[in-house]
């Protein structure tokens, strides 16, 4: 219901007319393999070159296109960017008009315990963030891949979904368990490449993944689509431990993520696969193909409406003075309240309130650390609030 999300207002939306992003308009997909997007030290201290395979609809002439950055499964130990499922999902989404990428990431850990699994997940998510920054860098400079920087999505299967969920919702160092010792890994953003650009995404695609804590999801976070089998013995559908091993960390699967997303107002869809095991969509048998079709259609149908909304884009990842401002309640009814972050020098700033059609309906001077904006005669619906030093916020008036 409520939608209150960090985003900077994008001028242009994605054109979805003519069945684009729903029907397979492109019969051929061009695949460019092994594009270098970064590098970083792996678990042994050896520098690993990070690569991605890029899938583009052949013959496409659209100037700025949405991109989905996918990561493969493999428990942070095995797997490849060109595995059967990655190839299939990247191809099918590219046939609709998306640009898709399947990425390498750093794998490996020992021994099998909560600390080392958690550290491996952080390293891998750092790499995914670098891949997202890679596309924003290209969009701001060479424009080789013709990416719309407002519409970058993160997705993955199993371990790859853990990564996408971290990119979308693990945004504070304080949310990382102390036993992982994040400082030894750097920051959540990491140093895998393409600094100075945002790793923020417009939505998360979670296929058989989990989070370390449902509290990572907070009001204002980006939309989420999940697909998960209820008989998953590797990544629990609700709450449990990976592979059922007592030495692995306690994790919260899609069945636990959804009620949290609902409670804090994050737009989300969960496709529950009743009685299905782990990653049932990965395979070439008839049952796997049927599950794949369901998964593909769920992702397709969730993403397409988001393309018709102003997206999320940040040219730089550097924080601004009001980026941590609080906006409440969620959803708003009679008033909208803003509180500047404590300990940050406050300077007056003009704000713009824009409706879902891109029309500025109010300009407000924010003069003091706390501001109350009366609703007045504003109708119910989706709005965007932004200003100098305040990355755009999406909010819902009921």
From TrEMBL:
InterPro entries: AB_hydrolase_fold, BD-FAE-like_dom, GDXG_lipolytic_enzyme. The keyword ATP-binding does not apply. PANTHER family: AB HYDROLASE SUPERFAMILY PROTEIN C4A8.06C (PTHR48081). Pfam families: BD-FAE. The keyword Hydrolase applies. SUPFAM superfamilies: alpha/beta-Hydrolases. Residues 52-210 form the BD-FAE-like domain. Keywords: Hydrolase. This is BD-FAE-like domain-containing protein.
């Amino acid at each position: 219901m409520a939608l209150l999300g960090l985003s900077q207002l994008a001028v242009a939306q994605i054109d979805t007319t003519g069945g684009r992003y729903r029907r397979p308009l492109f019969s051929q997909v061009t695949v460019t393999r092994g594009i270098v997007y970064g590098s970083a030290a792996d678990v042994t201290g050896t520098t690993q070159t990070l690569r991605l395979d890029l899938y583009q609809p052949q013959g496409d002439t659209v100037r700025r296109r949405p991109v989905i950055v996918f990561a493969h499964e493999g428990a942070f130990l095995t797997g490849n960017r060109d595995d059967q499922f990655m190839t299939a999902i990247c191809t099918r989404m590219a046939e609709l008009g998306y640009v898709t990428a399947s990425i390498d990431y750093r794998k490996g850990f020992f021994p099998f315990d909560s600390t080392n699994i958690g550290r491996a997940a952080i390293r891998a998510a750092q790499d995914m963030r670098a891949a997202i920054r890679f596309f924003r860098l290209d969009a701001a400079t060479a424009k080789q891949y013709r990416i719309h920087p407002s519409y970058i999505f993160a997705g993955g299967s199993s371990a790859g979904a853990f990564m996408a969920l971290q990119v979308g919702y693990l945004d504070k160092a304080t949310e990382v368990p102390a036993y992982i010792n994040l400082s030894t890994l750097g920051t959540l953003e990491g140093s895998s490449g393409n600094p100075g650009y945002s790793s923020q995404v417009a939505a998360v695609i979670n296929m058989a993944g989990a989070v370390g804590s449902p509290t990572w999801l907070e009001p204002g976070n980006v939309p989420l689509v999940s697909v998960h089998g209820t008989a998953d013995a590797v990544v629990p559908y609700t709450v449990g431990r990976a592979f059922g091993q007592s030495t692995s960390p306690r994790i919260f699967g899609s069945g636990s993520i959804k009620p949290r997303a609902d409670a804090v107002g994050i737009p989300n869809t969960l496709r529950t696969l009743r009685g299905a095991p782990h990653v049932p969509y990965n395979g070439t048998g008839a049952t796997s193909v049927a599950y794949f079709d369901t998964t593909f259609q769920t992702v397709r149908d969730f993403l397409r409406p988001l393309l018709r909304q102003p997206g999320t884009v940040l040219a730089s990842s550097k924080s601004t003075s009001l980026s941590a401002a609080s906006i409440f309640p969620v959803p708003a009814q009679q008033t909208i309240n803003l509180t500047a972050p404590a300990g940050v020098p406050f300077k007056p700033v003009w704000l713009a309130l824009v409706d879902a059609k891109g029309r500025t309906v109010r300009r407000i001077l924010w003069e003091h650390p706390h501001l109350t904006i009366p609703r007045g005669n504003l109708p119910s619906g989706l709005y965007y609030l932004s200003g100098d030093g305040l990355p755009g916020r999406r909010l819902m008036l009921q």
